[in-house]
Every structure is written in C-alpha cells, then in structure tokens.
Amino acid sequence: MRKDEQKDISAVALKYDGNNAPRVTAKGKGHVAAEILAIAEEYAIPLYEDPELVNLLSQLKLGDEIPKSLYMAVAEVIAFAYFISGKTAELQHKNGK
Predict the structure, then answer these.
(1) In which domain, by residue range, is 62 found?
(2) Number of domains within the chain
(3) Counting Cβ atoms within 10 Å, is residue 81 exposed (0-12), middle (13-18) or buried (19+)?
C-alpha cells in the first residue's frame, strides 16, 4: 500500500471470546491502520470492510466492550469471519476457541 493511500485508512480490531461482548483490541488511522491490516493478513484473520462501523468503533477506548447498540452490526462481522474461516459459532464454543 502506498503512503498516500495509508493516510486515509482506518482500522479497528476486535476480540470475541464467545462468552462476553467483543472488545476493541487495536485501532488506528494511517500507518497504524496499515500495520493492523498487515498483521491480520499475516495471521489469516478475516478482514471486513465497513467504514461506518469502523468510525463508530474507533470512538471506543482500547479494551472497551462494544456497546449494545452495535451488537447486530458486529454480529454480522463475526458471522462473516466464521463463514470465511469455514467454522461455526457452535464448533468454536465446543472447542473452547
């Protein structure tokens, strides 16, 4: 990604343990966002593009759980990640992963 493309990007990483609400684990703009995306790609973490959702999530502090008002939107992201990974929430829960 070119530097001029990096300045306009934003990224938010979430962690979902299957029991509690997802938490913001990383967020950033520009170079920091590019690094978040590069790490996700390196570890084959599915990426989901939704600029409006990223804008809302980026207002949260690191470590914050997502608010209830965003549950449905983030549930779609989690379902997408499971689908892309060939997994189901049920399998994840049974295996403790």
Answers:
(1) 3-95
(2) 1
(3) middle
CATH number at residue 62: 3.40.1690.10
Nearest to 52 by CA among 26, 28, 71, 70: 70
For the range 20-24, what are the long-range contacts, defined as Cβ-Cβ under 8 Å and sequence gap of 24 or more?
Answer: 20/65, 21/65, 21/66, 21/68, 21/71, 22/65, 22/66, 22/74, 22/78, 23/63, 23/64, 23/65, 23/66, 24/57, 24/60, 24/61, 24/62, 24/63, 24/64, 24/66
pTM recorded for the entire structure = 0.79
Length of the chain: 97
Check: CB of residue 84 under 8 Å from CB of residue 55. no
What would the pLDDT profile of 46-59 be if each residue is shown by its tens digit? 999 999 999 999 99
* Short-list 2, 4, 23, CA closest to 13: 23
DSSP letter assigned to residue 4: H
